[in-house]
Amino acid sequence: MTNNKYVLSWIDEMKAMVQPDKVVWIDGSEAQLDELRAEACKTGEMIKLNEEKLPGCYLHRTAVNDVARVEDRTFICTRKKEDAGNINNWMDPAECYAKLTKLYTGSYKGKTMYVIPYSMGVVGSDFAKIGIELTDSIYVVLNMAIMTRVGKNVIDALGDKPDFVKGLHATADCSQENRYICHFPEDNTIWSVNSAYGGNVLLGKKCFALRIASYLGRKEGWMAEHMLILGVEFPNGDIKYVSAAFPSACGKTNLAMLIPPEIYRNKGYKVWTVGDDIAWIRIGEDGRLYAINPENGFFGVAPGTNEHSNPNALATTKKDCIFTNVGHNLDDNTVWWEGLDNNPPKNAINWKGEKWDYTKYNKADKVNTSCAHPNSRFTASAKNCPCLSPMFNSPEGVPVTAIIFGGRRAKTAPLVYQSRDWAHGVFVGSVLASETTAAATGAVGVVRRDPMAMRPFIGYHVGDYFGHWLEMGEKLGDKAPKIFHVNWFRTDDEGNFLWPGFGDNMRVLLWILARCEGKVSARETEIGYLPYVKDIDIEGLENDGKEFTHMMLDELLSVDKALWREDAENIEGFYTSIGERLPAKLWEELETLKKNLE
Ligand code: GTP
Ligand code: SPV
Ligand code: MN
To answer: How far is CA 132 from CA 116, 135, 150, 381, in A?
Structure first.
């Protein structure tokens, strides 16, 4: 498919190590993908679902010990340890290559090596970047073919240049002890071994489009962020774009595909999805910030997705979709997950591949009693999304009016607040905190600092990353977007959510955009600008079937100084751990916060 000597010699080298029986180049044709689907069904790797109800859809189950990203086995391998920073695991590149070479050697014996040329971003556009992933898994090929732009035209766009990210994936024996997701930003290389799940193996996604790309972005003056991108269309036809960073499983896909409440729809408001997970952002010719979504599909959380919470996501999964680790309803050969409807199947196989007994479901032990794994996912093509933005394929991307950070905080963080200026906004993002979720292995529900929702994804030193954010703000000057913080997840003492969320988050988005246009005033508090209660529209709003009152809103917009003082102390510890590469400006911001809280 190519004469590119850099590509060919790298593939030869990898072949010699992993020793496949044969090599197949993925050309992007439907005919070839169809053959692979058929083969995967023959071997049991995938199950073909009901063609009437879910045309072109398949179910796949991963190994029971391989259901999420593995942060403790993810490494940034820079020559100097200090360049990886304190929140990344680090390994010396030479040592890592040697260690993984042992695991890779002969691991493709009896198997096929699939060569997947893919583009992150519109093929051939100025802002797109190319990767080649080698894999032994048809599941990976089929997912990559949905999540990225794959095929011969990508290789043609590369021509004879050496500018591609070299990704090697081997399922090997999928052993947990020898699972490694390693990044060599200085070599444009990713090595992943002993996993076959999502973010560990779809190398275009977190490995390339965030870890490697964030490193490239700093060198080249742009940013790769864990952000959704959406457009809010106003009744007069104007569209304003916002990007929002929330940690994994904290609401990006849901916000990106939001359907406004009826009162807004009737007035002519609409939300358009540009992206649901990753944004590549740079300064455009007019000096404003522009964002593209480098992906071509959605790898979304299945549980909780339903006709009310996210009808657009549900519609997107209705054809040509791959479901991973959801339940299998044997009665009609369809899929089911917790929160799809109130009608759990009586005759079903759970995510582990065992007969499922719906009467045994126990909220306190979801992993073992639910039909679908809490981190089960759908892989769906962007083009099937009913609210996909007409700007989705725009090579220049969309101008960003507001940047939003958000986390899962039961207490402390109010529903929404605005930073005083860019540097304060960078501070707010840098100290983002959120409860951990099932998207990564480890304990769920533990609050940790997750700077810019990028804690697991920054490909270099976090202190330098904050410095890069500050520098981007200096370049943008008065054209910088305004920066906000939201929290949809405040709870009462019984753990019930105080804010209805989902479509009603539109009410907060409208306040944010009104602030950007200077159309609404705000009250200055210790932590930034908060809305006046009257300025968030709660007309027709209910929470859990009960009327939502101004008093409830007042509570959600309150700042508990004692809790914030505790938080400031925790921030001090976090900042101290980062060391001397933490920009002085952020220490000043922390001092200001502490003074305000006195
Ligand atoms: P990744 O794909 O892991 O990066 O996740 P994500 O940030 O796209 O999260 P997603 O939108 O899939 O939401 C994850 C979980 O949060 C789902 O269980 C949702 O039901 C829940 N969720 C999303 N938005 C809201 C909200 O506004 N309020 C509440 N209470 N839950 C929400
Ligand atoms: C996330 O965990 O943030 C995801 C899923 O979007 S994965 O692709 O597994 O990283
Ligand atoms: Mn994500």
So the answer is: 5, 10, 9, 20
Q: Does residue 191 line the site of ligand 1, with CB under 6 A?
A: no
Phi-psi region of 110 (alpha: psi -120 to 50; beta: other; left: phi over 0): left
Place of tokens 């190319």: 130
Report the atom number in ligand 2 closest to the C-alpha of 202: 8
Nearby residues of 99 by Cβ (< 8 Å), 6 or more positions away = 91, 180
What mean pLDDT is predicted for residues 135-156? 98
Q: List pLDDT tens digits, range 168-190.
A: 999 999 999 999 999 999 999 99
Residue 561: the pLDDT is 97
Cβ(418) to ligand 1 under 6 A? no
Q: Which residues contact 429 (CB under 8 A, 6 or more apart)?
A: 245, 403, 405, 451, 452, 469, 483
Do the beta carbons of residue 354 and residue 325 sit within 8 Å? no
Residue ID of nearest Cα to ligand 1 atom 4: 248
Active site residues: 250
C-alpha of 395 from chain center: 21
Locate the DSSP E strands across 235-304: 239-245, 270-275, 279-283, 289-292, 297-301
Query: Does ligand 2 come within 6 angstroms of the Cβ of 299?
Result: yes
Asked if 219 and 376 count as a contact pair (C-beta separation under 8 A), the reply is no
Closest CA to 168 of 377, 380, 17, 329: 17
Q: By percentage, how much of the chain surpasses pLDDT 90?
A: 100
Q: How many residues does the chain have?
A: 598
- Ligand 2 atom closest to the Cα of residue 226 is 3
Each residue's pLDDT tens digit, 449-465: 999 999 999 999 999 99
Q: Closest residue (by CA) to atom 28 of ligand 1? A: 501
Torsion of CA 441, 445, 449, 454, to 10 degrees: 50
CB atoms within 10 A of CB 434: 25
3-state helix, strand, coil in the chain (%, to 5): 35, 25, 40
Q: Which atom of ligand 2 is nearest to the CA of 197?
A: 9
Return d(Cα 440, Cα 451) in angstroms, integer.
16
